[in-house]
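User: Could you write out the 3D structure of this protein bound to glycyl-adenosine-5'-phosphate? I've included everything you need below.
Assistant: Certainly. Input first, then the structure.
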Amino acid sequence: MSQPETSLMNRIVSLSKRRGFVYPASEIYGGLNGFWDFGPLGVQLKNNLRDAWWRSMVECPPIGPDGKPLSILGIDTSIIQHPKTWEASGHIGGFSDPMQTCRQCKKLFRADHVEDMLRDAEWVVSFADAMKVAAAETLKLGAFLQDSVTFDGAAAQNWAQRKGKRLAPGLALVRNSTVTLSWLDEDMRNNPSGKLSFMDLLNYMATEQKAKTGLQTPCPNCGGDLTEPRQFNLMFESRVGAVEADDDSGKVYLRPETAQGIFLQYKNVLDTSRVRPPFGIAQVGKSFRNEVTPRNFIFRTREFEQMEMEFFVPPEDGMKWYEFWVAERLRWWEEQGVSKETLFRHEIPDADRSFYSSATSDIEYRYPFTAPGFGELEGVAYRTDYDLKQHQTFSKTNLEYIDQENSRRYLPHVIEPASGLTRGVLVLLCEAYQYDESRASPEWLKLKPSLAPIKAGIFPLVNKDGMPEVAEKLYLDLRRTHTCQYDAKQSIGKRYARMDEAGTPFCITIDGDTLKDQNVTIRNRDTAQQERVALDQVKNYLATKLA
Ligand code: GAP
């Protein structure tokens, strides 16, 4: 099947906008980096994913290893909590990213994202082309920064004077090519192979004062000089009450994760419900992080939604429950229609884990912008008793569980499956996106039927001869149990195409024969096959197919 020129990710973003899944926030004012709005189809899809999660966590939790259903309770806590919360949790001291600023264009970058951004930067691809690094081909493999390259000084200078001036005005090679090239020349005399990696070459081209500064990695935006990395706190600040702007007494933070609200209320839940460890508390809600480099559509945004569950267990059972939840969460994402091949369990090595965590696995997905690699979708962390211990110390409130049966008291250990709801919507869109030129709408979404924003389109074949009346009656009946859409405009082919783009699994057509035999035609989105179903059986048909 031939594929269009535009990249897969760009096509998903543009379908999302065109069909009302996701719009840039504040678009009429030029947008706001890191913020997105969900349109009519998007909010429905997001709510369906949220409801599926809530149902599988709170209303019908999984069966535990002992064959009995787990106890998990729901909660909804404030976005703004007492500021001490974030001191205790470590977010005020430690929730920061290393940042670099460009001295020329003043843009900020997350230090650990610079190499990735260079790979995609227009000026780098153009420079690679001038140096005859197979940029276009290797870009697909995501590896060309490591490619080894034979340097051609004349081609570099030529590029600097033409394309470089426009694309990378901050690059040392463009600002002062003689000095930059002389560093390279001197060093290459000691390099018998005459080859260096393309990344090394970029570093030379960014470096004017090598003796003073060492080699510099260039700014992905303009090629300029980046400052040393500095820590930058990711929490958004606000103020409570009528306080002066320079008075810190009313300073509060928008929560960067929903988890801490759960820890603060753990004791109340324990005291007011009939649960005992092992048990969980689940929450869905907005979180805010002033991300340095929000990117990749709704993958990393500054305002997003999370679905988090803290599972409180006796300390000695921590690892057992950790393994249980990793397996359970992988299974759950597959149940939502995400294929096994696109999911990956990434066990975080000891050195990269938070100091308080005994084990963490990321559940990763193969996004179009990470392929063939994977990126995080959900984290499952064994957080030990770190959070409860911290809040116990900072609040001076005893948070221990009193186990009367075994005459002991302890701080439960916690296993936390934490996933992004908005990031989950991105995964559903990426996974569902299909391209098939032989269909009326080459682009269509193969969403799991129960998650689709619209479950059925209801059409009179023509807008006359008694068909609209029957179709409207059916619509009024079905909409009480399923999200349906009545559509009588344009040709039937165009109506199918619109529903395919929205990911609607079934289209029900009332035609001339319906009036005679009381049967309707139901078209299946995935197979485009049609079948005749009795009008009075349509409700049952949908109930069975959407279960
Ligand atoms: N309570 C633990 C916690 O918040 P995290 O790995 O930082 O852990 C959990 O976040 C999930 O939240 C991530 O796996 C991701 O799906 C989502 N998430 C985190 N930051 C995000 C962002 N800036 N934009 C969208 N989703 C984000």
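The pocket of glycyl-adenosine-5'-phosphate is lined by residues 257, 259, 289, 291, 300-301, 304, 306, 308, 376-379, 416, 418-420, 422-423 (CB under 6 Å).
User: Perfect, thank you.
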